[in-house]
Amino acid sequence: MSVKTKLITALTLILVVAFLATSLVNYAFTKAAVRAELLNSSLPLTGKNIYSEVHSDMLRPILVSTSMAHDAFLKEWIEAGEKDVGPITDYLSQLREKYDFLTTFFVSAVTDNYYYQGGILKKVGPRDPHDVWYYAFVRTGHEFDLDVDSNEAENGALTIFANFRVTDEKGRLLGVAGVGVNINRVTALLEQARAEYSREVYLVDQDGLVQVHRDRSRIERYYITKAGGIRDVAPAILAANDEARSFEYDWDGQHYLLSARYIPELKWYLIVEQSETSALVSARNNLVRTVIIGLLATVLIIILCTLTINHYQGRLERLAKTDPLTGAANRRALDEAFEESAYKAGRYGIPFSVVILDLNKFKAINDVYGHIKGDEVLRKVAETTRRTIRPTDLLARWGGDEFVILLDGGMAEAEALIHRVSCALAEIETDVNISFSHGLAQFIEGDSLETMTHRADQAMYRTKERSCKDEDL
User: Is the pTM of this model over 0.70?
Assistant: First the structure.
């Protein structure tokens, strides 16, 4: 694995781990904050609001049933022998219309008649399942009771009954009077809490039996002391306490938070519960969004870093293999190119050659025109030569005014290349005369770069010597 790959991999890991760690830490803090807010504020506040409305709705039926139990007219009518049904019917009808109750009733302990706003409904009996409530209430000896049951007078409508014991001056039981309220008035509040806050709100009696619930199948059938995970905290919930208290339990893979409040007037407990999972939906969605954005940002950063590293690595590699003055390859690049060409020549029999170019009288150019002019000449020679040679050939600066061309092919290709370069350099527009001497050498098995350039040097000096002799003649 290259250094660049290691660097990119390390950077990717650091960014991914940092984003994930930050996101998870934020989620953990958010989860703790949501949990604390639910237990200490939100659930108790919902319970308080529902408590106020339920208390308001149920207080009037309780007060009216209490008033009925102490009403002198009712007691006098009972003690007179319950001879005329008309007065009791009018009495119950007036109360029902005045307070908008679903039903008003009186069950006589003397005649067993069940009176309601429409007259006599029936005679109660211990064997009638619908009358169990009456005998159970009488046996308790309690003065007051709330009961949820089907209402025979209203086609079986589920009703909350406020029952109150009626006694004479000596404490003898005369019967039970009370009113019935449509349970829909209370369940509507619970449905509203469910819709607005995703919270389950319900009422249970002192035995833990559900009395009011949005799911009517649970009413009078579901005990919190026996059901699910809540049974573990049910005893603590049913410990009478006017203050709101918070509890937690686990059930079916979810963690639930709840607030419980005792309503002494009703002798019921108001329970508000919410799944912590549903409460954290927003936090989880935010975590997912953060992770996705973080990963996208990481990918973008890695791409930009890769492009930047590649760009600067390319520049460094070019600088490491390029002569800074002329832009030609340096000795390091020439060595690498030679090794590659020598490998191909040995394995595939592909010939290659080197050409040495030596600018004539370059020292005189520096002496007469200065080094700046000399540098300009070197740059123009290198630039022109690079444009002239083939893309597969390599131009390298060998020394001060010497260049080496590494090319594919034998001596014939080298001679042709020298001819093209000579023609191209002759066309350079400059105020100094540019000419060069050259030497050629073809690769022989076992050659090194030094042996090849040595032979090319020797060939170049032989050419120079012949040129000098020709000039002397």
Answer: no
What element of type H or E holds 191? helix 184-197
Percentage of residues in the chain with pLDDT exceeding 70?
98
**pLDDT of residue 124 exceeding 90:** yes
Angstrom distance (rounded) from CA 164 to CA 71: 12
Average pLDDT rounded to a whole number, residues 107-117: 94
**Rounded CA gap, 245 and 228, in Å?**
20
Mutual angle of helices 449-472 and 331-348, in 10-degree steps: 110
Distances (CA, A) of 149 to 96, 199, 304, 452: 18, 25, 72, 112
Half-sphere exposure of 149 toward its Cβ, with a 13 Å CA cutoff?
18
Name, in order, each residue with C-beta under 8 angstroms of 125's C-beta and a sequence gap of 6 or more: 112, 131
CA 433/CA 449 separation, integer angstroms: 31
Write the DSSP string, 130-166.
GGHHHHHHHHHT-SEEEEEEEEGGGTTEEEEEEEEEE
Instruction: Give pLDDT, residue 473.
Output: 46
The pLDDT, as a whole number, for residue 470 is: 53
Residue with tokens 């002397």: 472
Sheet holding 394-397, edge to edge: 394-397, 402-408, 352-359, 436-442
- Residue in the structure block whose two tokens are 């009488």: 138
- Strands ordered across the beta sheet of 210-212: 210-212, 200-204, 268-275, 254-263, 245-251
The token duo for 25 is 């830490």
